[in-house]
């Protein structure tokens, strides 16, 4: 059973992304995030945990909320993933490295390791090339970039998402 550690966002960002998921679904494009009621997020770590299903959040002591900019709509062609792409800012990159070094997962997906990590907020996945293009065209008038506040790290169990624990970042 896979697990992830995710960055979650402020309420305004959540509503914006959930509206995007809804629009994709309403246009008959598969959207697992909408169907399974995911929480909008950026995945920092993805893999397996062989021991207790918990994270010692001590490595995040003092972590403050921070803003990121979602800069464009993009896709991973080979995986059929349509996503929002944030800037790879210093605070986000540092946060990812901390999680990569301290998560304690027994195995981790190589695409989420520091050397290969490409931050993304998935809008839809497992799409055909035609579905990716149709999905992207739904947002031709969407205003980018837009700011988002990162508010917490969360340990989540999949395939049906269940948040097992949360570390709230300090408000400025």
In DSSP terms (H or I, runs of 4 or more residues), the helix count works out at: 4
Number of separate structural domains: 1
CATH architecture: Alpha-Beta Complex
Given the helix and strand composition, which structural class is it?
alpha+beta
Q: Kindly report the average pLDDT value.
A: 95
Task: Give the tally of β-strands.
Answer: 8
Instruction: Output the helix-strand order.
Output: EHHEEEHEEHEE
Describe the global form.
Answer: globular
Largest sheet: 8 strands, antiparallel
Radius of gyration computed on alpha carbons:
16 Å
CATH superfamily: Cyclic phosphodiesterase
Kindly state the percentage of residues in helix: 10-25%
Q: What is the class in the CATH system?
A: Alpha Beta
Strand content: 25-35%
Could you tell me how far the N terminus lies from the C terminus, measured between alpha carbons in angstroms?
A: 36 Å
What CATH calls the topology is Cyclic Phosphodiesterase, Chain: A
Unreliable stretches covering 5 or more consecutive residues:
none
Q: Name the assembly state.
A: single chain
Walk me through what this model shows.
This protein is α+β, with helices and mostly antiparallel strands and 172 residues long. It has a single domain, classed as Alpha-Beta Complex (Cyclic Phosphodiesterase, Chain: A). The chain has four helices and eight strands. The protein has helices at residues 11-26, 32-35, 90-102, 129-137, and strands at residues 3-9, 41-48, 66-76, 81-86, 107-108, 121-124, 146-157, 162-168. It is globular.
């Amino acid at each position: 059973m896979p697990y992830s550690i995710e960055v979650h966002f402020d309420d305004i960002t959540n509503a914006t992304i959930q509206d995007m998921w809804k629009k994709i679904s309403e246009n008959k494009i598969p959207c697992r995030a909408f169907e399974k009621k995911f929480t909008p997020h950026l995945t920092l770590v993805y893999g397996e945990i062989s021991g207790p299903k918990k994270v010692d959040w001590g490595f995040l002591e003092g972590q403050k909320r921070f803003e990121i900019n979602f800069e464009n709509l993009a896709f991973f062609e080979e995986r059929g993933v349509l996503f929002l792409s944030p800037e790879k800012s210093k605070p986000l990159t540092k946060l990812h490295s901390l999680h990569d070094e301290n998560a304690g997962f027994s195995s981790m997906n190589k695409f989420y390791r520091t050397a290969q990590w490409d931050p993304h907020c998935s809008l839809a996945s497992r799409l055909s090339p035609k579905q990716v293009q149709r999905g992207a065209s739904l947002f031709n008038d969407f205003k980018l970039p837009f700011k988002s506040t990162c508010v917490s790290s969360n340990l989540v169990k999949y395939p049906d998402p269940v948040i097992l624990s949360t570390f709230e970042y300090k408000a400025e």
